[in-house]
Amino acid sequence: MANNDLACRLMYAGYDYIMSPVVTQICGYMEHGSGDHGALHEAAMADAVIFKEMYERPESAGRKIINLMNWMNTPEIWARRAKHVDNPIKG
Predict the structure, then answer these.
(1) Which 8-state DSSP code applies to residue 22?
(2) What integer is the mean pLDDT of 1-25?
């Protein structure tokens, strides 16, 4: 979802884009969030709903700038995702 969010922000900011004539990224899929990326799969599914709702609103065109230091406002353990995995670090 991060790639889609960045693409929307750049488009809204007026940047030109070029569609690549060749494949630039190949992603695999582990069915039903299996394997070692289950928590990421669940997070992406939840975030897809948030991004869809966000970018359906006309005012989303103003979402152009990302504060690159916003990660400092995030807890070390992101509770929303930590609850989906067996995380030995409780917080």
Answers:
(1) S
(2) 82
Q: Look up residue 77 and give its DSSP letter.
A: S
Rg (CA), the chain: 16
The structure tokens listed for 37 are 């990326």
The pLDDT value given to residue 54: 84
26 vs 28: CA distance, rounded Å: 7
**What is the reported pLDDT for 22?**
93
pTM above 0.70, yes or no: no
- Closest by CA to 15, choosing from 52, 64, 66, 69, is 64
**According to DSSP H, which parts of the chain are helical?**
2-12, 38-56, 79-82
Distance (Å, whole) CA 70 – CA 79: 17
CA dist 11 → 4, 6, 20, 21, 54 (Å): 11, 9, 16, 19, 15
CA 30 to CA 35: how far, in whole Å?
7
